[in-house]
Amino acid sequence: VCIFFFFRVLECQGLPIVNGQCDPYATVTLAGPSRQVLHTKVKKKTNNPHFDEVFYFEVTRPSSYNKKSHFDIEDADEIDKMEIRVDLWNASNLKFGDEFLGELRLPLKFLRQSSSYEAWYFLQPRDNGNKSLKPDDLGSLRLNVVYTEDHVFSSDYYSPLRDLLLKSADVEPVSASAAHILGEVCREKQEAAIPLVRLFLHYGRIVPFISAIANAEVKRTQDPNTIFRGNSLTSKCIDETMKLAGMHYLQVTLKPIIDEICQVHKPCEIDPVKLKDGENLENNRENLRQYVDRIFTVITKSGVSCPTVMCDIFFSLRESAAKRFQGDLDVRYTAVSSFIFLRFFAPAILSPNLFQLTPHHPDPQTSRTLTLISKTIQTLGSLSKSKSANFKESYMATFYDYFNEQKYADAVKNFLDLISSSGRRDHKSIEQPILLKEGFMIKRAQGRKRFGMKNFKKRWFRLTNHEFTYQKSKGDHPLCSIPIENILAVERLEEESFKMKNMFQVIQPERRVLYIQANNCVEAKDWIDILTKVSQCNKKRLTVYHPSAYLNGHWLCCKATADNTPGCTPCTGGLPANIQLDIDGDRETERIYSLFNLYMPKLEKMQEACGSKSVYDGPEEEEYSTFIIDDPKETYKTLKLIIEGVGTLEQEHAQYKRDKFKKTKYGSQEHPIGDKSFQTYIRQQSEISAHSI
């Protein structure tokens, strides 16, 4: 059994003002066998905040799904014992802690009586022995709660609907696919994006699906300056993918510096109007500049750690944008930066608690510092031509002059080149190979004979997303070219091999190995990381290697005499290419079925729109204008299959409920006498039967 809570915190009115200020935020807790706490954003300087934020909670039976971050329940009676609690807080100085404003508690037993519930509540005082307050003094809060209970069947029940969804990337046009149709009929795109992304990630189809819907959206875009700016299905799916696959990436990249900012509390206010007594504007600017510089550096140096799935998506965005707007040389960068900077790094810096970078919302001073950093990083990543004009505030434009140097734009482009490059060759690509790194190093001639020092030669090495080459000097014709798909491993070489430091090896098919010495240990690590990054998707990558060279008739590491002996040491793997996600594909398909079933009237309306568009080629009727229908006939075929699949599953669910009602004996071990949840179920079924009669 899977139970989903779609919980929307709407607004508050008349909250108390504490010490002359009210910066409220809410925490939403599902209290049960364990606790999960989520937060809204802080609303500044208002005691009538409008939040309108949506939270999702899931409760599962262990037999259906098992994940530590979700709630496990043994029977329905445990659900009735759980409750949702909403606490209102005033964000204040961390030294004294945030002030509690009031709370409300909603038992799930009450919510199960209705699938959707919306009401105003008086906030109540916390029952902790403190002096009681009158409920009227705490203000009120309006909520919208949607309760959903799903029963997940075995995998074969979902095969028709699941197969229809998974082939969405191959449907022409993609707007006629089942996944795209789900995005069209759902009230909010995010509602469709969450289960779709999880399903496609589970079956390894997320990159072709996002590539298809992104390419379709780019074709509909007229102005390159507005590319991927709306809250489309493409944007929401990429956002959700980055949240799932990129969380570890955020942790290793930003968490150390964010922790330091939260702990040190350096003054960074640069608005002259907001300066506190004793603060110096120039000192504050320097503090902020150092923080921005450090965060900018760790981001632009983190390309080798970017998860593979994100890089492949960025590569497809870059390709689509470059083909659509061939006269705009910057669009291939802005298409990627609009996600990685605007929707990933900047929000994580602004609200680190929402990305698990900090346990709590930062205090006001730290929050202000993070806001200023986030604004600057977002603008640096945008690569816009007139950056100072991006700021409404004159003090921000003045501060940004520190970063008006070409080296910052170059660093952003190099970073975007790396995370949007792919070792997979696309013969339809109009893009030139992307230069990732180049420089002089010393290489040893490839072969198996015994060589002396005379065979180590200085060469100019050049790495693109297509090949790794070397030549005598920069600009010369390559003496050797290794396609990226032929790089099977990149590993360090032990110093004992040639009595030389900072060496590494590039292993190729047929046991060919290129031994290279970098100028220093930093350069060696950089080359190993970036070579591993571009080759980590190669299907024939090795799992073992020899950490030493083959000399004098044997491997120095394991003493094996045959030069084709398999490696004796596991490959390091190098980088966290993909984060393994614990996803139940059947559960996500069930969620998608529930959404289709919920929005069945819209599916039927879309069918009507397809019929209207097929026979009438005039101006579109207003009631149909919200749907994207590029091919009415193909879309109609898909809609018919969706409605048939949903109808079949609906019958299975109805039969399951009837069987449960008939076969379960009251007084059995599963439902002993006194089981209130079963009594409620019997009463509900009796009412349904009487109504149908």
UniProtKB/TrEMBL annotation:
Domain Ras-GAP: 188-382
Example GO biological process: intracellular signal transduction
GO molecular function terms listed in the Swiss-Prot or TrEMBL record: GTPase activator activity; zinc ion binding
Ranges where the PH domain occurs: 434-536
Secretion signal, residue range per the UniProt entry: 1-20
Gene3D superfamilies hit by this protein: C2 domain (2.60.40.150), GTPase Activation - p120gap, domain 1 (1.10.506.10), Pleckstrin-homology domain (PH domain)/Phosphotyrosine-binding domain (PTB) (2.30.29.30)
Sequence ranges assigned to domain C2 in this UniProt record: 1-121
Keywords: GTPase activation, Metal-binding, Repeat, Signal, Zinc, Zinc-finger
Pfam families assigned to the protein according to its UniProt record, in alphabetical order: BTK, C2, PH, RasGAP
Protein name: RASA3 protein
UniProt organism field: Anhinga anhinga (Anhinga)
